[in-house]
Write a structure and sequence with these properties.
The protein is of the alpha/beta class. The chain has helices at about 65-80, 85, 115-125, 150-160, 175-180, 185-200, 220-235, 260-275, and strands spanning about 20-25, 30-35, 40-45, 55, 95-100, 135-140, 165, 200-205, 210, 240-245, 255-260, 280. The longest helix has 17 residues, at about 65-80.
Length: about 280
Amino acid sequence: MGSKLSVNSHRADIIGLTYIYPVLSRRAGGLSIGINFNTNNTCNWRCVYCQVPNLTLGAAPAIDFALLAAELRQFLADVLHGDFYDRFEVDADKRVIKDIAIAGNGEPTTLKEFARAVGLIGQIATEAGVFPASDYVLITNGSLLHQPRVQEGLRVLNAYHGQVWFKFDSATEAGRLLVNNSGQSCQAAVQNVLTASQLCKTKLQTCLFDFAGRGLPESEKQAYLAMLRQLKDHCNVRQIMLYTIARPSVQPEAAQLAKLPVEELAAFAEEIRQLGFTVSVSG
């Protein structure tokens, strides 16, 4: 008997596999099958809201492709033909594979053989009948999308009608440093969004929260709206996913973080819609 799946837990070890883990996703609205390349809990950023324990700076380790393939085939068979939903007490209206999401315990594009892994997952999910009915998603901070090997992975993702969920939490240099511990400039990030959108369907994913009682500063809102105006003029990105924190951070700043009121999220979402974007909100 498994433990009940919850949107409040994204543990990558919940079913005892190395690369595969199930998630009840608020944003997807059902079962999301997570793929974790960063089994060593490494990332090239350190977001203050991150739930990964013992997070270290670095890249994903070399992947065992045979194990990844075996685990994915095994898990898909369990979900599609076994009693997975019963064991994990998944509500009836959530018993659908909404997507397979490359995410996990760090930045997945740090994997050296990223494109090969994207292709293997796509092939197996197609053979199992999961694609094209379910979505194929890459959740990324986008910081490495200027690299040819990562761009090749996006071309493969696009071949399976996949999409990029590009993390863009702040459009100010100070905000990116504070929230993501990222030294990458806003302009470089915008350029990477443009690159992603040319290779694959791309959405922006933005986490907003109250940091140290400051709420959502007006300066951050205005910078974000200005960034969207720039994007609108130069690419076809039109979908924004706004959300606030749902699970406790394990980073040193955790005690300073609080959910942003859903009313505040909704009000900001309306400002974004006025620019011509479609916005979803998860409170």
